[in-house]
Write a structure and sequence with these properties.
Chain lengths: 184, 367
């Protein structure tokens, strides 16, 4: 185990503190254990509510020196049409009010999800049966487009043209909705 | 089927305690969060929406012909709070659902291995419990329920973000897989804390037995996945299973080391706990849980005989406030509860010992 403070030297000192009836154990090296101001260490390890996490991460005022979204335009009036929830409100409460909130805040959600799900922003698991077909077609089109691109790069235009026709065929299926799918 | 069936402490299939790694892994739980696209989430919806959701989901499940185990529907809104508390203590519903006064209902299977909560934090919460370590079977069962609802209901699903949930911590698969573990040796040797600190880095989280924000009681810990997005259901349970198996191996190792280094001290400690359960007149829930944990360890190590694990499981269940009050038929003040708890556990343990003696015959009596 390495020291929790400097994260370099091996931890040789274990400190157990009790604050607000909660026990906190810390491991430090000899150097850092001499320097620590123990009263302040446990602030960071106290369990925080999701609301707090949200306001810590996303609710930082733009004038803050290390505001992560300083490049983003000011909040404006981002609001869910169906339930009236604003993005600010979502950040404050940490919960959505209706499925449409996802669409209302669509562009901004990846940065939120990334923090909560170890960097992941896209679903890869189960899909409802009804959606399966369209979803599969879309994924297929993506793959074909990729192939098409590499075919063009390698100047295999005949192959690329063939792939383009396949994509067109699939896109036609998509625009016609489920009707065409059901027939075959 | 009446709700009374589900207010007793018997016939709970997932408490059998004889699943894989049954001595260390108590039970496995899979939870799927789902919502219907046409309605607002429970935190913002109207009573009409709540009723419509209940109707749609219930009829989808009750009329489903492919479902292997029949489910029974109960409206919770009008139930007395003691009944709801017992359902919470049995892990059939969440404390959050029990708190709601007007809405909320549950569909549950006879053996209590499947329960579907309606209008909790999400419209639909499917929950499957299995004894021991059995994530695959629990997921299979949950998926069966999910498929059945999905045929009748239009789920709130987004191609990019997956299943949409009220809380962004559940988005994607909506899957929370949990494994309940009994880790007395790792706790006694102070290794649990390191384990707890390590888990977030693996995308997992360790909690006490009664879910979020609870302390570990009686050396029981619940390990579950924290990440629900970007991984498939199978990946999530596979990763959890791998870690759980490692923890099991560590616990086995610690138990072995304990027995090697201090056999008498351990035996003394475990027998003392049994003595407390057999003779105490006042038992707080913490003391009872710790003693039951020690006795269980004693059984696993072969130090204590005569008491079957299912008796301990039942003690763990009925020593909770709601159950105690149902058994006595009156409301109890906390200090009265401690007295009844002691009586109830004493009776159950001595009854178990009696049975065991009769089964074994006279010759093992002098041990």
């Amino acid at each position: 185990m390495i020291c929790e403070n400097c994260k370099q030297r091996p931890a040789t000192v274990t400190i157990t503190m009790t604050k607000n009836n909660e026990e906190v154990v810390k491991h430090y090296c000899e150097v850092c254990s001499g320097q620590q101001d123990y009263l302040h260490i446990d602030e960071e390890v106290k369990p925080v509510t999701i609301e707090q996490i949200f306001s810590d991460w996303f609710g930082i005022p733009t004038w803050s020196s290390n505001a992560p979204q300083s490049k983003q335009p000011p909040q404006g009036k981002q609001q869910c049409e169906s339930c009236g929830m604003t993005y600010q409100q979502f950040l404050k409460e940490g919960k959505f009010n209706c499925p449409n909130c996802y669409h209302a805040f669509y562009e901004r959600l990846p940065e939120v999800f990334k923090r909560l799900h170890n960097g992941a922003t896209e679903h890869t698991g189960k899909i409802p049966g009804g959606l399966n077909k369209t979803y599969q077609i879309k994924k297929e089109i993506e793959v074909l487009r990729q192939k098409m691109k590499s075919a063009v790069e390698q100047e295999e235009f005949e192959e690329a043209a063939k792939l383009r026709d396949e994509v067109k065929q699939l896109e036609k299926q998509l625009t016609q909705g489920g009707a065409a799918n059901d027939e075959d | 089927m009446k709700i009374d069936h589900f207010l007793k402490g018997d016939n709970i299939s997932w408490m059998a305690g004889d699943g894989e790694h049954g001595d260390i892994v108590m039970s496995t739980r899979i939870r799927l969060a789902r919502n219907i696209s046409a309605y607002r989430f429970p935190r913002a919806f109207s009573e009409e929406e709540a009723m419509a959701i209940d109707r749609q989901v219930s009829s989808a499940l009750l009329d489903c012909e492919t479902l292997q185990t029949p489910l029974y529907h109960f409206d919770l809104g009008q139930r007395p709070s003691l009944q709801k508390q017992i359902l919470v203590e049995k892990h059939l519903i969440s404390p959050q659902l029990a708190k709601k006064e007007r809405i909320g209902s549950i569909l549950v299977s006879e053996d209590e291995s499947i329960s579907v909560m309606i209008n909790e934090e999400d419209h639909i919460r499917i929950q499957c419990l299995e004894p021991g370590l059995n994530l695959k079977k629990a997921l299979l069962k949950a998926n069966e329920i999910d498929d059945c609802i999905e045929k009748q209901v239009n789920y709130a699903f987004d191609e990019k973000f997956g299943y949409m949930t009220t809380c962004p911590t559940n988005v994607g698969t909506g899957l929370r897989a949990s494994v309940m573990m009994h880790l007395p040796a790792l706790t006694m040797t102070n290794q649990v804390r390191a384990l707890i600190n390590m888990m977030p880095r693996l995308g997992l989280i360790v909690r006490g037995i009664y879910g979020e924000g609870t302390e570990a009681v009686g050396n029981y810990y619940q390990i579950s996945n924290q990440v629900t997005l970007g991984k498939s259901e199978e990946e999530i349970i596979q990763e959890l299973e791998t870690i759980v198996e490692q923890v099991v191996a560590k616990e086995v190792e610690a138990r072995k080391a304990m027995l090697e280094h201090a056999p008498i001290a351990i035996s003394d400690r475990l027998h003392r706990s049994l003595g407390v359960l057999q003779t105490a007149r006042i038992l707080s829930s913490t003391e009872a849980a710790n003693c039951l944990s020690n006795v269980r360890l004693g059984i696993d190590l072969g130090i204590i005989q005569r008491i079957p694990n299912e008796v301990l499981n039942k003690c763990m269940l009925i020593m909770q406030p709601g159950f105690l009050q149902q058994y006595t038929g009156t409301t109890l003040k906390p200090n009265e509860r401690d007295v009844y708890r002691a009586t109830l556990i004493r009776d159950m343990i001595s009854e178990a010992c009696q049975h065991k003696l009769e089964d074994e015959g006279e010759d093992s009596y002098d041990v």
